[in-house]
Write a structure and sequence with these properties.
This protein is 86% helix and 0% strand. By secondary structure, it is an all-alpha fold. The chain has a single domain (26-199, 208-429), classed as Growth Hormone, Chain: A. Helix 3 packs across helix 13 (225-255) and helix 8 (149-178) runs antiparallel to helix 14 (260-290).
Length: 434
């Protein structure tokens, strides 16, 4: 066999790989990255301004924790309906409506006073932002080949993890010059700008999606052990992430004696490490798989190993001396970034285009219950003990749950055959009737 005989085989493979790589960096992916960046800037505005809001409105630590938690009361509970809406009416439209809602809620925080009104606006913010990940996952699953999903999710994770970096830094600058109220108005207004380019893109879905979606019913999705594994893993990673996102600024100021300026620089640098590791982790995973590595082994090693890292870092922050605790913050952010692309890529692979929106909606409901629990529980613990030590120990314990979910509850990271499962259940039903 001559060299020419190999060209017809390798050329299509190379072309397919190039197309997959381009799909992971398409304008649609970049705009999805931008919208989730804005998502995290707006949701992170409250923690950045928490100490000023607390002083101006005379709030307790428990009330600050409740404000952070209130966002997740609606954010978590409406994930399933928004996942269904994304598949029924189009993720493109649902995403735009959600952004308009959360941008309005962010702006209004800057003009209201009183704890109750702030809680109501946090609830509205949760409704608007709930569309982000189900809609994004639906679009990615239908436009990006599976061999490039880690890269696409890495780009998106880099963007939304840069949200706290830019939000914390820009928020600190805006608060210094204009006050915390102006910060919320500016952040919300800036988010609305995204609607202009998004209105000019067209998302092309695969022709077979409608038929496949009918086969993969919501009841069938709920019966998958892998769904509950991804849900528990997501809950665990979100618990530590939201715990750190909600309380790191106050922890640095009140527990470690940082000034506002030092806190802003330190927290921004830590969040940047998280974002940088996310895009690197996604690229490395796709490169490993592209060179013949096991998809199942690659994702499980990264997700399982990251949760072990979470446990160690939380314990170091709780029990270590100041230099160890501060170093552990950066190590945690690095490990968190490395696992971020896999949190949604695994679900997109398992569910496939037929069920990615609903699967991620259900998974996000489970995962974001952590957002309800972590900020509020931490506030009560700090009020009770006067310190953050016990809160870090609780976060370490939650890491064990995530390790078990990803490593032991997901049989294999591979797309589920929904038609085969439907046929299998029909055959079992026929046997029972016979």
């Amino acid at each position: 066999m001559g060299c020419r005989d190999l060209i017809p085989v390798t050329a299509p493979q190379n072309a397919a790989a190039a197309d997959a790589a381009r799909a992971a960096r398409s304008p649609v992916v970049l705009l999805l990255a931008a919208v989730l960046f804005l998502n995290y800037v707006d949701r992170g505005a409250l923690p950045t301004a928490a100490h000023h809001i607390q002083e101006d409105l005379h709030l307790t630590f428990s009330q600050v924790g409740m404000l952070s938690s209130a966002f997740f009361w609606t954010y978590a509970l409406v994930q399933i309906p928004t996942g269904w809406l994304a598949e029924r009416y189009g993720a493109h439209r649902v995403l735009a409506c959600g952004l308009a809602t959360w941008a309005l809620a962010t702006m209004l925080v800057g003009v209201v006073s009183g704890f109750v009104l702030l809680v109501i606006l946090r609830l509205l913010l949760g409704v608007g932002e709930s569309v982000g990940f189900p809609s994004t996952s639906k679009i990615l699953a239908t436009t990006v080949p599976s061999q490039s999903l880690a890269t696409a999710n890495g780009i998106i994770a880099f963007a939304y993890l840069m949200g706290p970096v830019v939000g914390t830094f820009a928020g600190g600058v805006l608060m210094t010059h204009f006050g915390w109220r102006a910060m919320f108005v500016i952040f919300g207004a800036a988010s609305l700008v995204w609607l202009w380019p998004w209105s000019r893109v067209r998302v092309q879905h695969r022709a077979e999606d409608a038929h496949a979606t009918e086969i993969a019913t919501t009841a069938m999705i709920l019966r998958q052990r892998s769904l509950w594994g991804t849900g528990l893993g997501h809950f665990s990673s979100n618990y530590t992430f939201y715990f750190m996102l909600s309380w790191l600024p106050l922890y640095l100021v009140h527990e470690r004696g940082f000034s506002d300026t030092d806190m802003t620089r330190f927290a921004s640098a830590a969040y940047f490490v998280n974002a940088a590791c996310a895009i690197g982790g996604g690229w490395a995973l796709d490169r490993y798989i592209g060179r013949g590595g096991s998809t199942n082994r690659g994702y499980k090693w990264v997700l399982g190993g990251s949760h072990l890292g979470f446990i160690v870092c939380m314990l170091c922050m709780a029990l270590g001396p100041r230099p160890v605790a501060l170093a552990a913050i950066f190590v945690y952010q690095a490990v968190c970034g490395l696992q971020s692309p896999g949190v949604f890529a695994v679900s997109q692979i398992l569910a496939g285009p037929a069920a990615a929106g609903r699967w991620v909606g259900i998974q996000n409901t489970i995962g974001n219950l952590a957002g309800i629990v972590a900020p509020a529980l931490t506030g009560f613990v700090v009020d009770w003990t006067g310190h953050f030590q016990l809160a870090f120990i609780v976060a370490a314990a939650v890491g064990v749950v995530g390790f078990a979910g990803y490593v032991f509850m997901i049989p294999k990271v591979a797309e589920l055959d929904w038609e085969a499962q439907t046929a299998g259940r029909s055959s079992m039903a026929s046997t029972r009737l016979g």
